[in-house]
Structures are given as structure tokens and as C-alpha cells.
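Re-running the complex after MR caught last week's input typo. The corrected sequence lines follow. Everything else is unchanged.
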Amino acid sequence: MTQVLIIYASDYGNTEKMARAAAEGAGSIDTVSAVIKTADEVDADDMTASQGVLIGSPVHMGTIDWRVKKFIDTVCSGLWIRDRMIGRVGGVFTTGGGFGGAGGGAEIAMLSLLTTLAELGMLIVPLPKNTPGYTDGGLQWGPYGRSADADMENVGVSDAALDVARRHGANVARAAVVSGNADFFAP
Amino acid sequence: MTQVLIIYASDYGNTEKMARAAAEGAGSIDTVSAVIKTADEVDADDMTASQGVLIGSPVHMGTIDWRVKKFIDTVCSGLWIRDRMIGRVGGVFTTGGGFGGAGGGAEIAMLSLLTTLAELGMLIVPLPKNTPGYTDGGLQWGPYGRSADADMENVGVSDAALDVARRHGANVARAAVVSGNADFFAP
Amino acid sequence: MTQVLIIYASDYGNTEKMARAAAEGAGSIDTVSAVIKTADEVDADDMTASQGVLIGSPVHMGTIDWRVKKFIDTVCSGLWIRDRMIGRVGGVFTTGGGFGGAGGGAEIAMLSLLTTLAELGMLIVPLPKNTPGYTDGGLQWGPYGRSADADMENVGVSDAALDVARRHGANVARAAVVSGNADFFAP
Amino acid sequence: MTQVLIIYASDYGNTEKMARAAAEGAGSIDTVSAVIKTADEVDADDMTASQGVLIGSPVHMGTIDWRVKKFIDTVCSGLWIRDRMIGRVGGVFTTGGGFGGAGGGAEIAMLSLLTTLAELGMLIVPLPKNTPGYTDGGLQWGPYGRSADADMENVGVSDAALDVARRHGANVARAAVVSGNADFFAP
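Corrected-run output:
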């Protein structure tokens, strides 16, 4: 079995919904088991047991949630030092009110997660434009679920955004299965 | 008089409309004259004659138009070498189809313009959240005019986005007037 | 008096040294008082009492320290909602081992701080290339103090980098004095 | 045979050297042929004939060379519209004077190339920290060859940086071989 780990933090349940959809998508791939953990509970062993990792975060002030950052600083730093995740596969997703027509800073938030994957030496799976639902819940870096309306009322992520998350989870899982049997990075 | 220069490239006229709105806003401030040029025609003298500069670009593949980049590489690089723009004031704006609910890469495009202003040592004017029209045409880094619908049909930037551009131009002009009489950067 | 607030987190004392240098520079400007606080202790009242703000962070995995992010999420978010910091002045700085010849991800870390300033509607002060010490401790977005050598041994930030931080603090303070008497952003 | 395409622009020959090293690395992998083209001469057929693509650029004003951007706007945009590159494999590299101890803006330049790969739906190969030469010529996003000293004199990229480029080319080629036989992105 290939394990895919989905890590997230959530304030109002929207990022949790996206995480569950991504896990559902990953788990739908043959020979893949999906494990889902919050940023508070995930540890280094969860990471090293996984061939694929998806990290999701609400967007706060144009970057990621501090609980996700705490996980990165305290768990991922040590894995980086010891070169433990090189050659595995990763993807990211975010949610947010999207205040402002251009997404409310989702892009730097996604790049803050992607820099972690890159530092760890992991292959990065982006979100192809032909993914069904992309116009509603997509950005080139990964799924983005809008959770609030123009008045900043929490209205919840759309079914289309959840579907994008599901497909992204499946994409990462497919790549993780292959990367488990290949050595992309040679000495 | 304080001169504010607005530089842009445009494919279908949308960025040009945003540029004209920004110029209108800048020119509405007492003692400010606004000059508008395309990226193809602006030169180093236009830059050094200006206390404030706004640069606008369509978003192409998640970054700025190559004609704007050519202006940056061929005109701005020399000004950077000779420390000619330090202490002046700048702002940015973009337009784009916004394919994907999160803005289609507008943020890296804006940062590609902002890095130019920062390299030149210019004060950066962001877009405050309380700007009228922000929910339609704003991002924290500056105005963003959506020019296409979900099917990528060019529908033109909204009046709200143009109004945001107008107000952003006025904000940059106000800061340029003050920075012309102050020395923020001392040796 | 114009108050300039310096906020930081520190692991081994390097970012603290940079913060103290920035505070020294800010406090050297006439009519400016500098206040220095850790990310753990600063509150909303500290922010609203300040016309200028400098935020500094170690670089961890290519972005900012989680304690700085916690401050942003818990203190700055509320100020953003209520439009409390619009028109004030800000700057950023970082420290890091800089593993890898290109700075080890300092740029996304700085942008993670700058997006906070931009969201708050604050004028951004970059670091001019002609700042003495720039070649040792500068990036266009602000001072960057290298704290470790190629073997990741902590060797401490250089005097040149501390000098850059001092001058950056003074630059932000000068701009803060002016912005306290001007209204860049009009309704 | 799996084709890996290396695309670059060069001012003083440094990026060309890095491109040739990357091509040498890619071509060293069994069943891979490496093709190298300048940004001016590459066309859509070159792209669609390639399972792996490396794009390299000098850093100018904190982002990529305008000739590389012209290639992206004029060649890649059409491929994006028609979903022609989805599931292939990409990597990036840059060169630059690195004025300022933190790399002179190499990171946004690399992200400007990476956003193109992500928009095209291509798997992204980062640069693992354990790559020999990383401390001299590496960043998490890819190889970075410093071409100038602190006085901005062109001294040429180091052998270590060229070695990093060679290994990065080989890494991308290995991933391209696998991705040619796998379907990561399903409908």
C-alpha cells in the first residue's frame, strides 16, 4: 500500500471539508490508503510513513494559518535536516474568504506551503486547467475554496471546489504510487 | 508641479482603460500632472522626471506581459545601477481573465512589478481594504480588473475596478507630493 | 512624538540583534521613540499607538517563524477587519542560515511579512541598493542577516548586516514622521 | 526515446553555460535525448515533442529576462489554452549577479518560471538539499549560478553551480521518463 497523508488546520470547518474531499480522492486510487490529520496532531512518523503529502490551510492575512506554520517549523524542519522526504510527492490547497476579487492573497499562501514541499525535495503536483470545477475552485498551484461572500459572511465552500479537491487528491495519489517505485533524485 | 507617470501594455484595451483611470485619479490631485505612456514608448527621462510611478500589466501565464518586462530590463535596469529613483513613490495594477476562482495568478504578476519598484528603492503604496470597489477589483497589492468571464470571453473590466484604479492613482499621487518634499532615505 | 514599533521572534539571538539595531536606528531620528517587543508579547494597542512598524523573523523552511505568524493571525487580523492601520508605514527584515547560495528562501519569508503590511494598508519602505552594507546584508525588500555558515553552524549576523538594519529602522522612522502628518489614502 | 528540452536566454554566456550543463545531465540518462534552444528560437512543436522541459533565465530586476517572458507569452499561452503539456515534467534554473547577500531576487524569478510550469499542468521537480554543490549554487526551487562578485563584476558561474545544473537536468530527465509512462492527471 502507498500511504497519502492529508494535513490541515481549520477554523470554521471549510478547510476540514476540503481535506476530507482530498482524502476521499486519494483513497479512491487502487493500492492507496489515505490518512488525515490536523496540523496539531501530525508527527514526523506520519510524514515518513507517507509517499504522498497534501497540506491545506485557511488563508489568513495573505499567508497560511499559524498552526500549519508551527507544524512546518517543528516537524518538517527536522525532516529537512535529515533529508527524509526527498523524492516523495506533494500538493497543496487553501480556503479563504477571498475578500477582493483577486482571491485575497491565496497565491502567497499556496507558495508558503509549496516552499516547504520544495525544501523537503518533494515533487510538486500542480492543478491542471482542465480539471472539472477549476473555474470555480482552482488556481494553478492547487484547489482554492472560497468560504465567504463579498460581505465576509461564511457561506461555506462550494461543491465544485470540493470536487476539485477530490480530483487533486487523486492526482497526488497517482503520482505517489509511481514515485514509490522510481528514483528521481540520484546522488 | 509633481509628475506622476503611468506605464502600461494592453492587448484588448482593458489595461489601457485601467491606466487611463489611474491617470485620471492622479491628475485629480492639486499640483499633480499625470503622464501616460505605453511600455514601448517610455524612456529613462520620463522616469526621472516623475516623483510617482504606476506600472500596469495584463496577467499572462501568471506573470507580467513581456513588453512590460522589456521596459523593466532595458529602461529600469540602468536607473537601478545609477540609484536614480530612490525615495520616489510607486504603485501597481493588473488586469486578466482571472481563469480560476482565485484570480488566475494575479498576485505573482503584481509582485513582479513590485520587485522592480523595491529594487529601485521606491516607497510602495498598497491598496487599503476600505477602498470603495475593493471587493470587485482589489487585491492588497493594487487594483485588479477582471476582463473575462468563466469561459474566457473578454467582457471588459467593470466600472468598480476602474473606480479602484482611479482611487489608487490618487493615493500614489498624494504620497508622491509628500515624498517630493521629504528625504526618507539618508546616507 | 512618533512611535515606531519593532516586532520580532528569535531562536538564537540573531533576529533579536537585528531588531535592536533597527530600534536603535529608528530611535536616532528626531521626535521618534522606538519600542521593541517580541511577537509573543505585542498587542493591538501597541500597534495602534505606532505610526511605523518593523516586523522581523527568522527564515524557517522558506517562510516566517510560526510565532510571528501567530501574532499576525491573532493581532493583525482584527486590526485589518477594522481598518485601523491604514496609511501608516512599515518595513521588514529577516535572518537565516541562508543554506544554499541564493539565500535559503529569504524572499518568500519577506513577502509573507510584506503581505501583512499591504493587507493592513500600510506604506512599504524597501531597502535602497545604495545602503552601506547592502552587498552583505541586503535584499530589495529589507535587511537580511546571514546567521550561519555553509555547514549550518550558527556564526551570528555580521556587523554590516546590523548596520543595514540600523539604517532601515531610520528610513522607516523618517517616513513614519511624515506619514503622521499626511493623508495618503482618501475616501 | 524521451526528449528533454532546455530553453534559455543569456547575456554574457553564464545562463548558456548552465543550460549546457543541464542538457548534459539530462542526456546522460538512458533513453533520454536532450535538445537545447534559446528562448528566441523555440516553438510550440519543440514543446509538444518533449516529455521534460527545463527553463533558465538570468535574473533582471528580481524577475526573469524579457526574452524568456516573450517565449512564455507567445508560445506557452497557446499550449496552455489547448491543455497540451499536462502531466509532463518541468524544472527551472537562474543565474545572476546576486547583488545583496540574499541572492538579488532569484526567488521571484524562479517562481515566475514555475508559475508557467504550473499553469501548463506540469509536475515540478525541485532541488533537494543533499545535491552536491547545493551550498554554492542551489535554492529549493532549482540551481542558481552566481555570475558576479560584490562589485557587480562578471566573474562567471562556478564549477559547483554547473554541477548542480547537471544533476538537476538528470533529475528532471529521470522524472520525465517515468511520467511518459504514467497518467498522473485523470479526467
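None of the earlier attempt is carried over here. DSSP finds six helices and eight strands in chain A. Chain A has one domain: 2-179.
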